[in-house]
């Protein structure tokens, strides 16, 4: 954070000094002197390029800072899971409901309400019949992992388990699913993975990573499609040959 503040302060000071210098040179330039004006234009273009490069550097520092904060927030969620599709009732004991789901559907018989540190429904209660997801924070990371690895037992129940991703990662995850398909995107320990069209697995940290994967996939698919379209199709067998084969 201090490095970012220093960079910003340096850019601001430099910008103010240089712009003051340009204004003074422009004010003191002799009237009708094209040479002085041309030199001033060259200096301004050079300074503009420098400022743009510095702003790009500053943006990269901001992105790294945002990624660090996001990693820190995701680390604080490592004991949390979301239960989707659990029937919602009025005045329910949400922790008891979640514990019942874990015991009955995930077959973790030793799980109790005491293993849950915090539990509540997400969002406001709407008038629709769709139940709100249940956010559970477990007392131990191992319990969270036990629930996560047992989620395959929920197949056919209408209940699913997902990670409690940060807003940035959730947006990135939904975008990845939209572009690559639901079955080719997944999250694990807060990290988002994508299966490219070439069959390789990619870890995605930002939208730029997603765009790069899409570009690589397009580069791989295009030559294959081009080769298939350019290859000659087999010519049909003569009618007499087909009739002879049919008689046999």
What does this structure look like?
A four-stranded antiparallel β-sheet has the order 2-3-1-4. It has three domains: 2-28 and 37-75; 80-164, Alpha-Beta Plaits (2-Layer Sandwich), CATH 3.30.70.1820; 166-222, no CATH class. It has helices at residues 2-28, 34-75, 94-104, 141-149, 167-180, 207-230, 239-247; strands at residues 80-84, 116-121, 134-138, 160-163, 185-188, 191-195, 201-204. Helix 1 (2-28) packs antiparallel against helix 2 (34-75). It contains seven helices and seven strands; from the N terminus they run ααβαββαβαβββαα. The radius of gyration is 30 Å and the shape is elongated. The termini are far apart. It has 248 residues and is α+β, with helices and mostly antiparallel strands. The model has no long low-confidence stretch (mean pLDDT 81). Residues 239-248 have a biased composition (Basic residues).
Brief digest:
This protein is α+β, with helices and mostly antiparallel strands and 248 residues long. 55% of the residues lie in helices and 13% in strands.
